[in-house]
UniProtKB/TrEMBL annotation:
GO terms for cellular component: cytoplasm. Its main location: cytoplasm. One of its GO terms (molecular function) is DNA-binding transcription factor activity. GO terms for biological process: negative regulation of DNA-templated transcription; regulation of secondary metabolite biosynthetic process. Belongs to the Fur family. The keyword Transmembrane does not apply. Fe cation binds at H90, H124. PANTHER family: FERRIC UPTAKE REGULATION PROTEIN (PTHR33202:SF1), ZINC UPTAKE REGULATION PROTEIN (PTHR33202). This is Fur family zinc uptake transcriptional regulator. Its cofactor is Mn(2+); Fe(2+); Zn(2+). It comes from Paenibacillus amylolyticus. Binds 1 Mn(2+) or Fe(2+) ion per subunit.
Length: 154
C-alpha cells in the first residue's frame, strides 16, 4: 500500500495543490489497513476541520481516486476507499469480506471480454470477494446445501 509520502508526492506531481486537508487525508489512508466509507472519512476529518462539508470531503476522495492514489471498491453496503496498492501495473483485487485484506491480482478478464465492435471501453471492474486463510474458519457455511438438493431429486 502507498505510504503518506507516496500519496502526497503523486498528488503534487500531478499538479494537485497539497493543502493541509489533503495531507491529513493522505495520512489517514496510508495508516488505515481496511476500507473507509466516505462517511468514516467525513467524521474523521470533522474532528480536525470544523465546518467541513461532506461534499468537499467526497470531492477530495474522487480526485484522489482519479489520480490513482486511492482505490475504490463497491461493497454491498456501498462504496469504500483505501490507499492504492504499491502494484504499479493494471491489476484487480481479491478482497476478504471479514478483515478486508486485499490481494492484488494481475489477471485481467478484459482481454477475454468480447465487447461489441464500436463499443468504446473507458473503464472496467473485476473484484473477487471471499475469505482469507485467517478468516475462512469463521466464514458462513459453504453452498453445500444447494449441492445436496440437486442430488436429492434422484
Ligand atoms: Zn490495488
Ligand atoms: Zn480475512
Ligand atoms: Zn483489468
Amino acid at each position: 500500500m502507498l505510504s503518506t509520502e507516496q500519496i502526497i508526492n503523486t498528488m503534487s506531481s500531478q499538479g494537485l495543490r497539497i493543502t493541509d486537508q489533503r495531507k491529513t487525508l493522505a495520512r489517514l489512508f496510508a495508516e488505515s489497513p481496511g476500507y473507509l466509507t466516505p462517511k468514516d472519512v467525513y467524521e474523521y476529518m470533522g474532528k480536525t476541520y470544523s465546518g467541513l462539508s461532506f461534499d468537499t470531503v467526497y470531492r477530495n476522495l474522487r480526485v484522489m481516486q482519479e489520480l490513482g492514489v486511492l482505490e475504490q471498491v463497491v461493497f454491498e453496503d456501498g462504496v469504500k476507499f483505501r490507499a492504492s496498492c504499491s502494484e504499479d501495473h493494471h491489476h484487480h483485487h481479491m478482497i476478504c469480506l471479514k478483515c478486508q485484506k486485499t490481494y492484488p491480482i494481475v489477471f485481467c478478464p478484459m482481454q477475454l471480454a468480447d465487447a461489441p465492435e464500436q463499443f468504446q471501453v473507458v473503464d472496467h471492474k473485476f473484484e473477487v470477494f471471499g475469505y482469507c486463510k485467517d478468516c475462512a474458519e469463521h466464514a458462513p457455511a459453504k453452498v453445500a446445501s444447494g449441492h445436496q438438493h440437486s442430488h436429492g431429486k434422484h
